[in-house]
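Subject: Sanity check before I submit

Could someone independently write out the structure tokens for this chain? I want to compare against mine line by line before I put it in a report. The sequence has 404 residues.
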Amino acid sequence: MKILVINCGSSSIKFQLFEMPGSDILIKGVIEKIGQSDSFINIKKNKKQDVNFKIEILTHQIGIDFLLNYITDHDQGCLKSLKDLDAVGHRIGHGGEKFRNSIILDESILSEIEKYNELAPLHNPHNLKGIKAIRQHLPTIKQVAVFDTSFHQTLPDYAYMYAIPYALYEKYKIRRYGFHGSSHHYVSGRACKLLHVDIKQLKIITCHLGNGSSIAAIDKGKSIDTSMGFTPLEGLIMGTRPGDVDTGVATYIMKKENMGSDSLNTLFYTESGLLGITGISSDMREIEEASNTSKLAKLGLEMFYYRIKKYIGAYTAILKGLDILIFTGGIGEKSVKTREEVCKNLNFLGIKIDKVSNENTQDSEKVISTADSKVTVMVVPTNEELIIAQETQHLISDHHQSGN
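---
Independent answer below. Compare away.
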């Protein structure tokens, strides 16, 4: 079964074409800077040298058009025609309470998903663009939505509820949902497979650190708490998002700056976090470089490390112990300094990392803790696209078997 996985962001499209169930990747890549004059495409095929195109991609539809033409190109492609494609899986940021599991899409499901656009404005509207673009070329192909929130549907009510009038939960379903579910799901399972241990016997903390960051407490394979909440704003400090903020700060800013809700959303989603504190960038590499001379860059990093460390302590408490700590995401996988600072002085929790191992991960799956560390600390590159492909395969196979 050939499954195309698409992850549409605000200005990008990540994609992978899988041959399932073997999980072989036929082609993968990313279209960056959509809508800008310097947009480009990077494609990797069969582990060969990267192929790069500098081409103006004004919309997600144009990006999908290019992708489908490329994978069926006589010389460069890997499919004879689009008829060889069996299904398309999509990452969807927010599924609310309604979508506890992945689902095959139809018109009514799309309408329901659109209702959550206001809860994940940087994610859902753009995710939906990919679905609609595929329908322009392949109106009858099965498309599957895999929700970032689904993995966290196992949170107990005392963990997901906010202490606001219960009537507001009943009316608007205001509660904590959590995000990055596919990533937390994948890396926790992958780590246990690499260590040859049973996930149902273990207590795990997964740190997905990137431009968007979240942390999850996983007990016996199930998420029991996670740092993001009703929207992807809560929790850890991120590239442009502030994480945990006193709600009084929001109302105070609105009053003092004569700011409406839309402007406040812009402030919290795109102008805060590491960018807001440092005034330099939301890119960890640039902030780390600037921290030698900039006090604000140094402060931003210290705040970033501190918040992660605080959550690790809290989640170790609710798990009643810790067996595995995992770093993933762009920063978690690549920033030696972040892993070192987060784990520093956590010996009392049984966390000790090996300096040499930590400095030589090279994007690999690797244990970076010392031999005498009670907690196994690992770097596990995430593969959300594989989880989406697997979910899509299972749903499509079940659909065929049921005779639909």
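---
OP: Matches mine. For the report I'm noting this point. The mean pLDDT is 94.
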